[in-house]
Amino acid sequence: MRERTQVRPRHHRRGVDRPERQQPTQRPHPVPLLLRISAWIMRPGHKHTDDDRADLADARRRCPDLDTVAGLARGLAALVRHQGTGQHLDAWIDRARHAGYPEIRGFAAGLASDRDAVVAGLTQPWSSGPVEGQVSRIKTINRQMYGRANLDLLRKRVLTTP
Questions:
Q1: How far apart are CA 31 and CA 103, in angstroms?
Q2: What is the CA radius of gyration of the chain?
Q3: What does the pLDDT average to over 75-84?
Q4: Which of 11, 54, 126, 145 has a C-alpha 20 to 30 A away from that of 160?
């Protein structure tokens, strides 16, 4: 009904020549989501399916800069995953500083400025993950109370919830 009530272009009216129909063109392969490309890059190679490998190769063919970014991301992931001495950190920072991307250069500069803390994080067996999880849980409880909770009420809510 809406189509009939809308004003149609002049060539749709009777007695007027209609333009020739164009042959349908083949649509280009859609660009994968950034999240999917990130997963392909960060997943170890032996865990990829054949389709994943083909799609990643296609994405790399379309965007040559992706090879550089993927190499840097995989290098950093290897530093983080494999607890070691952090000896390769300086080499990774140098590679990242010479990459042509300001975001990666800025990240590398931040790592270089906090080098001692980063090396400690890479080499020490401890993790602050459980503490960060508890802080996140307390913040969630506080947000649920719209920030109006005083310390006594917050203490009761934190201690009673698992």
A1: 22
A2: 27
A3: 81
A4: 126
Is the confidence at residue 15, as pLDDT, over 80?
no
Helix (H, G, I), strand (E, B) or coil at 75: helix
- The whole-angstrom distance between residue 30's C-alpha and the CA centroid of its chain comes to 19
CA distances from 91 to 4, 82, 98, 131 (A): 67, 16, 11, 31
Spatial distance between the Cα atoms of 145 and 140, rounded to a whole number of angstroms = 9
pLDDT tens digit sequence for 25-42: 666 667 778 888 888 888
Both structure tokens of 102: 């300001």
Q: Give residue 68's Cα distance to chain centre.
A: 16
Query: How far is it, in rounded angstroms, from Cα 98 to Cα 100?
Result: 6
Q: How far is CA 154 from the centre of its chain?
A: 34
pTM: 0.60
Q: d(Cα 41, Cα 158) in Å, to the nearest integer?
A: 39
